[in-house]
Amino acid sequence: MIQHPYSIVLVEDHVIVRMGLKELIEHIGNYKITAEFDNGKQLIDNIHNINPDLIIMDLTMPVMDGHATMKWLKDNEIDYHPVLILTLDTSNSAIIELYQAGVRGYLPKTCTAETLKKAIEDILNDGYHYNDMLNNALLQSNKPQPKNAREMLSKLSDRELEFIRLVCDKEEYTYERIAEILSVHRRTVDNYRDALFRKFDIKSKTGLVMFAIKYGVITV
User: Fold this and answer.
1) Which pTM value belongs to this model?
2) Does one domain contain both 123 and 194?
3) What domain range is 128 assigned to?
4) Structural contact between residues 15 and 3, judged by C-beta atoms closer than 8 angstroms
5) Residue 80: inside a domain, yes or no?
């Protein structure tokens, strides 16, 4: 059975860079660039005419940059098109701000083809790409929490908070080890995880980590 290629949209104002990305992306996997835009304004003007599996977007663009585009997508509740940022801006503040705005991955343009492929696969399969850039930004950032953070955290029990913090720990505990630390059966840990997945529409462990980052469950 032939699998249809994943649909990817490129938002990048430099035509030569966009052409190179198109050639590279279609070479490294079963991907097809189905639309290309020069800036965020062109993207949002056509957002209801496209249905990509992934949007790969630059930050620094004329007319409407990546920051403004992500804000518009968030304000208009268009979060069903995952966005991977590919940019030269690797500042900690930009990384944290954009993850909180809803991006699913963040890479420097100097990354290798292998790294780009992994990021695309992570987002398509797990919903997010989580890397050392984000880890380092979290260690050095004091970015304030989103306005609804308190409301979201009020929905968590003390035990669920403890579970999330252990999932996000730098030791990268397995669920078996978390069960030992909490002195509960492994099935109980699975119940914590499944309840959180249902409550917040989370689909993976990586998604749980991103939830913790976005709403300040873990200290940044």
Assistant:
1) 0.71
2) no
3) 6-140
4) no
5) yes
